[in-house]
Amino acid sequence: GQRGLVCGGVCCDEETERQLQEKATKNFERLVKHHIRSQRSHWEQAANMYKDYLLQLTRQSENKTLILFSTVYSKMSPLSREPIRELYETIRLSLVATDRVPLAGDDLALVTSKFFRNLFPVAYHHAIHSDILHGTERDERTGNPADVGNRDFLSDYKNCLVHTYTDLKPFGMVPQQLSGSLVSTVSAASVLLRAIREGAEVLLKLEEVGVSAPSCRKALLRMNYCGSCKRYNHLHAKPCAGLCQNVMRGCLIEYVGALNKGWSTFTEAIVSLISSVRSTVDGIEAEIKSLDAKLSNAIMHAMEIGPQLEKQVGGRGRSHFPSLSST
């Protein structure tokens, strides 16, 4: 039969070349798809592993904080457990929030602010108020020393303290600093996790790309089968490295084009974001690991200025506060 137009070998006519070209193209597409899937799997695994690691880190930090309160601030512990759990749960929800599954409820900044605002009455009543500290608090009904450790106090008393929180600033600058660093680091980590997943989704779409350029299909035929068409033993007559590189470079253009120019910018941003998130100074890991210490610093600050706080609270109508917890 008539020799094929691409290889011009005596063993392959045009129909044979067409079939071999189709085979070479499918093999190439299969190989590229395999590597894309492998790369996509790496991205997805990286996102899941880092997410699980951060969530585990928050649970460890939460346990440390609860233990700290139960041992160092034992009188505050019963009424502090739920706010602490809410704070950490919001951190976890903020980390895994996505565009498809947005954060439910209040955002992290609001929850952090609410945490300290609601912590103030507990800290004041159990760690600052001089009667409590000196054990002179008395039950109004019996006159005996009051057992205040596990009991809440009247809402009027609590509300009055909450309303004075902004003016008194009992925890100094710790709440503002903690809120700023916590929101910043959690947001950065959340963005990184979303970005990695979005990168995996881009690669998923790339699997649908195929080879359509005639020049590429012919080049694949030439690289893989022209030697055989010309009676060379294909096991020994391998195409040279330069030809293989040129064919791969030319045939991958369609895949690279599908990624568009934004991909290089995207990957550069990912690298920069990883460096920021993994920083040992102000990254998410350092922030979560130091959370218990920062909360303790806030309470210690309030205790240090306790006498001043008592005077300020007294000046705002302490005589109207019930001195004892409610039953």
Automatic annotation (TrEMBL):
GO cellular component: cell surface; extracellular region; plasma membrane; side of membrane
A Pfam family annotated for this UniProt entry: Glypican
Subcellular location, record wording: Cell membrane
GO biological process: cell migration; positive regulation of canonical Wnt signaling pathway; regulation of protein localization to membrane
Membrane topology, as annotated: Lipid-anchor; GPI-anchor
Lineage: superkingdom: Eukaryota
Role played: Cell surface proteoglycan.
Annotated family: Belongs to the glypican family.
Protein name, UniProt field: Dally
Organism this protein belongs to: Anopheles atroparvus
